[in-house]
Structure formats: structure tokens, C-alpha cells
Amino acid sequence: MSLQTVSSDATEHRPNRPEDVQAMEADARLRDDIRLLGRILGDTVRDQEGPDVFDLVERIRQTSIRFHRDEDRLARRELEQILDSMSISETVRIIRAFSYFSHLANIAEDQNNIRQMRARGAGKNGGSGVLAETLAHAKAAGIGPDQLRNFFKTALVSPVLTAHPTEVRRKSTMDREMEIAALLDRRERVALTAEEADASDEQLRREVLTLWQTNLLRRTKLTVLDEVANGLSFYDYTFLREVPRLINALEDRLEESGEQAAGDLASFLRMGSWIGGDRDGNPFVTADVMRGTLRLQSSRVMQFYLNELHVLGAELSIAAHLADVSEELRNLAERSPDTSPHRSGEPYRLAVSGIYARLTATAEKLEVEITRRPVGKAAPYDSVRELQADLDVLHRSLISNNARVIARGRLRLLRRAVDCFGFHLARLDIRQNSAVHERTIAELMDAANPGMSYLALGEDARISLLTNELRSTRALVSPFVKYSDETMGELNVFHAAAEAHAKFGSDAIPQCIISMCKGMSDMLEVAVLLKEVGLVHPSGRSAINIVPLFETIEDLQASSSIMDRMLSLHDYRRLVDSRGSVQEVMLGYSDSNKDGGFVTSGWELYKAEIGLVEVFERHHVRLRLFHGRGGSVGRGGGPSYDAIIAQPGGAVNGQIRITEQGEIISSKYSNTEVGRNNLEILAAATLEASLLHPRQSAPRREYLTAMDELSNLAFKAYRGLVYETEGFVEYFWSSTVINEIATLNIGSRPASRKKTRAIEDLRAIPWVFSWAQCRLMLPGWYGFGSAVEQWIAEHPEQGMPFLKELYQEWPFFRMLLSNMDMVLAKSSIAIASRYAELVPDEALREKIFGRIRREWHSCIETLLDIMGQDRLLQGNPLLERSVRHRFPYLDPLNHVQVELLREHRAQNPDEQVLRGIQLTINGISAGLRNTG
User: Active site includes 124?
Assistant: First the structure.
């Protein structure tokens, strides 16, 4: 494939400003990378599939480009004729070629982003990034180093990895892509000799060929522990090294800008995970799976520590007769079981081998696998604090004997890593649906109180019963009662959580999250279950945070009043106070979007945060918000920095947790530099939102009123289509790949909560995923256009100028429209119309797609008017070019997907038909990136 036309036309304008010149140079280098990869892919297709397939690929590519570049209708008809005339075998080969182009283009774009990050870092501030810029803003605002250190003492920034099934790539293909990226990176950084350049070209060809011959699709379904293993790979790629480096770099920045501060900077960046602990709708997450998850996590971090100690021992070859050592270091060395005469005069090496021996004994005690063996027997560490104390001995001895530069090397990073990751690596949340907790408590209560029907009780009666049970010292569970499998499964998970606290420490499982939380009793039921295993004590102490997750529009609207009553309840408030008077609340972006649409979901989340901030301030409890954002805009995704900055005043307050899901994890954290930059973005945005955005910057009352009205109008439009239009469910299941997505082996969790076709029971991920595949992205915009039109009709005195003011002055409204801008730019109503043709009922098709098409045009027109743009993505030229030049490679995939769907639904027995559909899902997903 000769992919030269993928990049932008460099003759569009003559650059005047230095930044324009830099952007065009970056574009040129991006073009070079894509041409190189495209040429190699084309050669691979020709060599592996023959010249006929290569020529067919080229005809399709050139015709599609001609249609998009010139809007040539003859080219469109020609393209359709070519695609329709192919055999199933040819179709699968074409799909693979165009899918791999999207993957390779993504690699080139990622490398270009890294290149630009480096260019910014090499600027006048030297190594500056978004965090350095935020620190400069803080300094300009009069916030000194001591104040910043105090801020970080209680700060928490926690990305939480989930296994939500939106990553369609296999790890095998991701590994090959990372090798290709590494080769491009080396060509960028190193001046290669002619021989080295030839070798690099050959290695690139080898990797692309291997990628071509690697299955794009998984042949078997993932288990939960497979998902855990995949998640742990990102610790090797990024987290284990870059989390400590980021905190240490920030510590250095603060020391440079002020007096030498005593003590280390607090480790405010903590990794979290749901993988192996999220039971909501996933029957495969059991107590044993959770135990296996914790062992795998611990094994990964213990192996990392041992590897680092092994290298550290080699590095610290300091001889006792050439450098002084502290008395406590001598004592530590003397306790080492290492009897090698070669290290007799090297106290640091002896001390390290002693730490190494104790750590391997600790791994054995924790029953986690490691590959390294000690030099002798030693006692295990009872806690991670003991390991930290030994490493601190090394540190203090080096510092006190004028070897600070050595102490700041590998030892410093290891000390920081131990502080961040402990023996558990990531903080695992346990999560379950409130309905399951309710059934479990009902069975326990009814068995303990003959004649009682817990499910028949009203909310107030339940609250009274549960609070009495919280104070009771007797066990609710009886060894003489045979409980249902579901109840025993839930109790086993809570017992496993208590075991984890005893084994790995309380940070191993610090949160218990309640999905679909609708009232106080949902939270109290969990408190009672935790009391049964000793994680909550009748005296009012809790070893774990109880976290409500408010997901639907109705639940978001009720969240403030629920939490007001909870914090007023003496028995629950005691539990909160025992946790440092911090209460976490999780907000669900995905389900609220599916429930009420993009505009209303965003607005109700914002209002819920305002209400929660007011409630928590009144109760003098610190609020920590956990944002359950999806990867796509239709599930609350979009740029993290903008999302955090757009939070209402007081909503961040130094602590934030955010889910990182599916394909977003690999796009953000599989590359070390990109991963570091994304971690910096989270830290910088948290700092800026907490310290640099004063509370008085809250939006004006008329802004809130207008947004309320717009939201109500958008809600009616969205609900009217999705939930109130007769036949919409049939339209959705016929016009999208929802059925076929379920055949992909991309996750362990079922697509629906119940075995129905109802939209209410469908999970948000396949809902959004399906609309992305047909290029409508409906959950990311529907209802906005008609809402604006109606609002202007009702408020002619304010009209469009007022909405433009909202966009200019209010970060929340600006972020809302910016995300719609991106989603609509990736949509195609022409492609979507082809999918609508899959609906057998012509009248239903015309009725529903006609409404969607009108709303799509209305949304784009009003959006551009408010933003003051002539075209979508006008304010983001880099993304605009990327999107525009992907379309010629995406459209053929969409076209053949539609035709294969026809064949599949007509019961074509050829197994290549379904495989072809699955491959198109992969290719379209890669081409759309964060909306797939």
C-alpha cells in the first residue's frame, strides 16, 4: 500500500509564525513515517497475498481517496462496484490490509505526539511539561513550595484500570506494534550509519510481516485472570518506573524553587484496579479469582523489587576502607545471611543481599511466585514498613557520608516505588450491584428472624433494622443455615477481602463500591456484610471505604439528599470519621448517558457535584469524587485535563479517582513517555483545579438556568427517540453490529445485565460501541441540536449571542461542545445510511433514520454557530487532518461490514463471513481510536 496521501497537504498555507513552521515540520515527519510504514505494508501484502490482491487494495484506496478529496460521485459508484464484486476470500484480505493500515497509522501518530512532547520539553524552560507549567502558575499565584508540600500530604490522584471490554486488540498484536514504535523511535533519536539504517529497515519489515501473520482476533474467550495479566503488563511498560519518577521529579522541582524541605514528598499518586474485583454483572469474578488476582499483583511487584535489588547490589560496590558507613548500616550488613568472602568488605552489598533474602522470604510467606532465589535464609518482613526502614538505612548512610548523588539513583526510585506500591501493587476495589447485596441481606435477615420478610420492608424500616444490626456484636450469619449459592458467593468474597487485609495490608482492598446505589439502605447493607467478616466493627470503626455509585439520571438527582441523610446518621457517620472523615462518592458517566443522553448526563453529573460539595461542607466531611468515565465521549470520555478543570468549584479538592478503560489504557500507558505525560496531566489538573481555581468562579445563575432548560429539552428529544419511539429497539438491533460484537472474545463479562433486548438492560459499552461502528456515534450528541433550536425560539431576547457567551466564559459548556465537535467530526451520515438499510421494515427505517439525520444536521449547524467555526474541528487542526485522512481507509471497511452483515443475517454458512465482520470491527475501532 502506498499510503502517501494520508497526511495533510503542506501547500495549504505559507507559515509565518514559528509555531506554524514547527507544526508543518512535524506534519512532514509524520508523513514520512506513514509513507515508510505504508510502503512496507504494501510490500508485505504483495509478497504474502500476491500482486492481484495488492492491485485490488490500491484500486480501492485510490478510488476512496478520490471520492473523499474531490467529492467525486463517479468515484463513489466505482468504489461500491469494486467492493460488491469481491469474493468472501478477497474481502477478508482487503479488510486485513485496511485494518492494519489503521493500526500502523496510529503508531505513526503516537510517535509524532511523542516528538512534539519532546520538542516542548526542549524549549526555553528545559524539560518542561504540563506539570511544570502548573507549578509555574502556582508560583505566579503566590503559592510557595511549603504550601505545595502541604497540599500533596493529603492529595490523592488515582487512575483506576478496569477490564471493561472495549479493547479489541490482542496483546500479541499490541506487542508487535510496540516493537514497531520502538524502531521508529530509535530512528528518530539516533543518527544511524548506512548499515544500521539497512538493519533497521529489515527489522521493521520483519515486525510488519510478523504482525500480518499474527491473528488480529482472539480465538478463545478471556478469563478474568487473563484480563488481570493483561492489565499487569502496563505496570511493566509504564507504572512501576514512571510513577516513582514523576513524584521524585516533582519533589526536585519543589526543592529547586524554595528552601531545602525536610522529608520526602508524600506519594500522592496511587494506582487502582477493578480487574479481578469488579463483580457487577460478571459471575466469573469469585472469591478464588480475587485471591488469584491479589497473588498475581503481589508477584509482579515483588519480582520488580527483587530485580531492582539485584542490580542495586551490583551498583553499590562501595568498599568500607574507602568510604565511611553509618553504624546502623554496619548492623544491617552484619545481619545479612550472605557469607561470600568476595563481599566481606562491602557493607552496602551485604546489606542489600540481606534485604533481598528477607524479601524472598516475604514472597514465600505471601504465597506469591517469584523467579529469583536468595543467598541464604532470613526472616520475612511483617509489613512493608519494615522493608522501607531497611532501605532508609541505606539512604541515610549514603547521605551522611557525602554520597548523595548515589542515594539519588536506583535506591531513591526503589524507595519511592515501595512507598507507592507496597506488597499489593495496586489498590483493588471490590464492586457489586446493590440488588445482589439486597438479596444477600434479605436471606440473612429472614433466616435470623423467622417470619420476617426483609424485601417487604419500606426504606425507613430497613434503615432502622440495619443500624441496629451494625451496633450488634452477634453474628448475623449462622453456621447451621444452608444459604443460597449467591449468598455464599458474596460472603466468600467479603471473607477473601478480610484475608487480603491481614495478608497484604489494608491498602490491598481499600474500597467497596455499590453499583446502582439508590438509597441509604444500599450503603447500610454493605456495612452489615462487612461487619460479618470483621472489616467493620460494632464500635464504629471501618477498615474499608463504603462507596456509593450513582449511575442513572434519577440517582444522580437524588445523590445529595441521600448523602446528606447518611452523614446525619450517627452509626454511619462514626464509620466515616474512623476513615479520617473522608467519604468517597462515585459518579457513573456511562449509564447516565445511556439513560438520559449526552447533554443531560453531563449536566446532571455537574449539578450532582455542586450539591455534594455543599452537603459535605455542611457536614465537615472531605468529599472524594470517583469519576467512572468511559473511553468514548458517549461514555463520559474525552480529554482528562479539560474534564478535571471543568469540574465545579470544590469538587476536586486535592483528591480524585478516575477510571481508565479498555482501549484507552493501551493508548495512554503502553508507551513509557506517553504514559508519563498522561500521569502528569492527571496530577497537574488536580493541582490546578484544587489550588488555582477559586470558588467564586462558579457560573452565573443565568448560566445554570439556561443549562437546566437546554438539558430538559435535550432529555426529551433523546428519551423520545430511544425509549418512547415504537420500534426503536428493533431498529437498533438491526442497524448496528450489536449482535456480532457479542461474538468477539474481548472480555469476560456478558454484554447485557439480563437476557433481553431492552435498551435498559444493555450495558453502556456495547451500546456506545455499536453506534461508533456504524459511524453515527449517536450517544455523543443526540438531542443537542433540537434543544438549542427550541431554546432560542423560547428565548429570542437572549438567543444565539447568549449561548456564544456561555461557550466563551464557562469551561463546562466549552468542554461539552468540544467533545461533541470531536465525535461529530468522526461521524458520517452517508455511511450511517448504509447501516439503516439493514432494517427490514422500510417504514420503520425511514421514520427513525429520518429523525436521526435531521438531528445530526441540526446539531452540527448549531454547534458550529455557537463555537464560531466554519467546519468541525477547525480549532484542532492536527486532529482535523488526522480524521479527514482516515476516512478513505475507514469507509471501505464500513461498506464491506454492511455487506457481510447482510450475508451473515441471511444465514450464509461460510465461517469467513463472521470472521470478516469481526475483523472489520477491529479495523474500524482502530481507525476511530477514542470513539471506538
Answer: no
